[in-house]
Amino acid sequence: MKTLQIQLLLTGDELMSGDIVDSNSAMIAKKLQQAGYRVSKRVTVGDDVALLQQEIAVLSAASDVLIINGGLGPTVDDLTAEVLAQVAGQPLEEHAEAISHLESWCANRNFKLDAPNRKQAMLPKGVTIVPNPVGSAVGFSVDHNNCWVVCTPGVPSELEKMLDQTILQEISTRFPSLEKTSVFHLPVFGLGESKVQQMISEAMPDWPDTVELGFRASLPIIDVKLTTNTYEGEKARTVCLARLKMLLGAHIISDQEETLPQRVVGLLQQQGKTLATAESCTGGLIASQITSVAGASSVFEMGVVSYSNRIKSHLLDVEPEVIERQGAVSCEVVHQMAQGALSKSGSDYCIAVSGVAGPGGGTDEKPVGTVWVAWGDSQKIETEILYFPGPRGYFQQIVAAVGLDLIRRRLLSIEEEPLYFKQRKFKGAR
Q1: Cα separation of 151 and 130, whole Å?
Q2: pLDDT for position 430
Q3: How far is CA 424 from CA 142, 335, 382, in A?
Q4: Which H or E run includes 312?
């Protein structure tokens, strides 16, 4: 059975110059994937009539659906309607439904409908309007080359509404019998992309052809993707998932598409427990990630950014003589930071980190990338020293993820040590 071919054409000089980042293609692909469809090709072209004509002709001939994004505005460099009219061999004409939309849009905002705005109603003859519930420029569609060509505005909020309210439903209605794509995401932390691939290749050499294996590395998570296009593939994927869970074990964050902060907050909510953080080198990143999750207020008590030694002592009761003797990046200090966070907040669990983020400040004994992590509860606080050399932002992201992962493991009563303890153990620990 044929798989639906969907292709994207993004237009605009600002995309080619880098003045704006293309987030729309990612949004379109994501929403299509959630609906069971897949983008097979994406092309970006500047505001060039000849190039746009060429790409529309080529892409429409090779796809079932072509989504053109951008170029519907009121200015001279908005060329989509003009170019599509030329490709389809239809004249431009003022579309009554588009004019009515513009008049209502302007009236609601006390705007005067001027000539540049009226340009947005000059569309190829015979197109079907795709309503825009937010902006001034309507979308429109036409059948060309046995392909449904749909033109959408470049404003993300407008595009999103049109996808949700019209375009996805129209695709489903037009192509009801084509097989849909289904993607299952398995988020993994603590294993590199190549390591996961090696483990799967060695343990599962009989991987079925009906299940496409893929990876997406998004620091600090590896997303293992299992894609199917058939009913047989979905059955085979169930078996693959069971084997992957056995193989990757506790490195799998969740069997749902969750981030580490979401998983930790969810587990705390399920168990009726609370958490506090004491951060130095991460500067509040752990607390920020936790509080980015809706509902975190029910489980997160306190976050202290004890960046200076004075604050470590003043707010977390870290003994000044311990800092003087062992240094701020030490087992004793991070342990006392965790104890202080538990004591001051009354929380059930805590995470504490102190390290050398760089690029300066490192020594032979404690080079840039060194971090002490403490995690646990009033009954047991554990500590570990790890080494993550690299840029400052990378270091902070990894350390925050490690702290969250260790609490996740404690909440799940996982006793197995994560692989990164062995791989990232700082050999100079004392």
Answers
A1: 8
A2: 42
A3: 57, 20, 17
A4: helix 309-316
Query: Domain range holding 86?
Result: 6-174
Choose one of 251, 281, 301: the last residue of a domain: 251
Q: Is the pLDDT of residue 180 over 80?
A: no
- 363 contacts: CB under 8 Å, gap ≥ 6: none
123 and 208 share a domain? Answer: no
What is the H or E stretch that residue 96 is in? helix 96-108
Same domain, 406 and 281: yes
Structure tokens at 378: 């009033």
Q: How many domains are there within the chain?
A: 3
Domain boundary among 174, 208, 228: 174
Q: Are residues 237 and 315 in the same domain?
A: no
pLDDT band at 189 (very low <50, low <70, confident <90, very high): very high
Confidence (pTM): 0.78
What pLDDT does residue 428 have?
A: 62
What local confidence, expressed as pLDDT, does residue 257 receive?
82
168 Cβ contact list (under 8 Å, min separation 6): 31, 32, 35
